[in-house]
Amino acid sequence: MRILIVDDEQEIREYIASMQEWRKIGCEIAGTAANGEEALAILERAQADLLITDIRMPILDGIGLAEAARSAWPSMPIIFLTAYHEFEYARRAIKLGVADFIMKPFRPEDLIKSVGVLLDEREQLNGWREHDDFFELFSNETVEADRKHEWLKKHRVADGPFMLLYVEWDGTTDSITEYASFAHIHLRSLISNASGTSGFNGLTASNGRGMYLLIPLGEEEGMKAEDSIMAFARSLVASDGYDVETSFSIGISSRFPSLLHVPVAIRQAGRCMEYRMLLGRKSVIAYDALKTIMDNREQESADKANRLADLLRSADHEGVSRLLKDTYREMLSSGSNKKGMQHFCLQLIEKADSVLREFGINPDPDEFVGIRAKILSLAVLTDIMKELEGWLLRSADAVKRVIAQSPKRIVADLQRIIAEDYASELTLQNVSGRLNVNYSYLSRLIKKETGRNFSDLLWEQRIEAAKTMLLREDMKAYEVAYASGFKDTTHFSLLFKKTTGLTPGTYKSQVLKQTNS
Predict the structure, then answer these.
(1) 226: Cβ–Cβ under 8 A, 6 or more apart, which residues?
(2) Would you identify the CATH topology of the domain 2-106?
(3) How far is CA 352 from the centre of its chain?
């Protein structure tokens, strides 16, 4: 490694340049300079690999020199020589654009040790090239599986189960772009060394903002390995390698059976980083746990939407307002983000629209579009909830006016029964008894008001329920059939395909693929 020494004090730069220890660690002095301007002129011709510079210098100081050097040679490591009172100022100004800070007065062994670490990391760079090739190839979903298998065979890498860790800076996007590339070398070195020490021996790669660590798992390894990886991740974020300003968080993918699933694992890790905003710095987020949270929230949202539908069907103004107030408090306590709040409010609007259509009410086209645009344009939760409440109460008023017309009320009650009890043994006869109307009259009324038969309404509700159940990982297709009210799995498959154009299995795979993309 060729070193350029920059210091305005001649005695200091000559002393550093004459240190005998440089030869022992395989280094030589490329030149010396009294200020940053001289150093830049020398760097053009000296082919230096490392810059050791003072901060306080005339003409062009160390900070200005470091910024100029980063522009021309972004991967060149820089070591600052600094007095104690300059230390925090230098850290703020340069952030991670320097490899180390050596305090004046310094001991020669401290400087030699710092450069020795850089030498080790430079050698390690060569071993990372194969890792970069792997991630470039396996993260590309357009590359055929055969080509990926050929790469594994050529590099003697075994295919098999793995988990992916993604380590990402906690800083803002603007501050991340200011980090020198050498900071990523530090981070990669930290992760690689910790991985090897823990016995994982993973593959690493940078995406510019953070670092991936792919950990191969043995075929026989199960929950024990996953627990070990979680403990490893927690110890990594708690390490003292970086201060609070430059801390990082980690997302952990699910366990996958083959390296061909790397693109999906990368997307899962990205979803974990999206959730970090609710947890704060130095977070460790496992996708499996996150998915459970998301599933529970989706179920809670669906339950609230169904309760809203019942309240609107009975034109219960107080109930609608109370539901929205409870929802507002829950959003505040759970720390929901803006996108999540808007999505839930739109879900309630969609449910309200479906109730209105049950009663034969077609919303005004301008209102139909306007309320959605309003929800998406507002930035304050109280404003969003106020607009939503006003629209829902107007919807309840519209239903109340229709309820006075007995035929529409009977049909609305019928559809409520179907929505609540679709999985039970519902027939037109027993439903007519529950509604206290004549069987034949109810049949004619349904046809007149909806244009369909009772059985059509029942099967449609069962198919809609089956769509949701099919996305659950703990339910097989035949279990979904029985749980949604079908007595025959063949009938279920035929009716499902007739309704959706897809078999139950194809529908599930397509929706999950869209969700993970």
Answers:
(1) 163, 255
(2) Rossmann fold (3.40.50)
(3) 31
Q: For residue 102, list its beta bridge partners.
A: 81
The two beta strands, 78-82 and 50-54, are parallel
Burial of 152 (0-12, 13-18, 19+ CB in 10 A): middle
- Per-residue pLDDT tens for 490-506? 889 999 999 889 998 88
- Going 425 to 428 to 430 to 435, the CA torsion angle's sign is positive
The pTM of the whole model exceeds 0.85: no
CB 184 within 8 A of CB 211: yes
All structural domains of the chain with their residue ranges: 2-106, 123-282, 293-455, 456-516
Write the class of the CATH domain 456-516.
Answer: mainly alpha
CA dihedral (408, 414, 419, 422) in degrees, to 10, reads -160
Contact call for residues 6 and 53 (beta carbons, < 8 A): yes
List pLDDT tens digits, range 335-347. 566 677 777 888 8
Contact 336, 345 (CB under 8 A): no
How do beta strands 78-82 and 100-103 pair? parallel
Find out whether 248 and 237 touch, Cβ atoms under 8 Å: yes
| Gap between the Cα atoms of 314 and 285, Å rounded | 43
- 164, two tokens: 């992916």
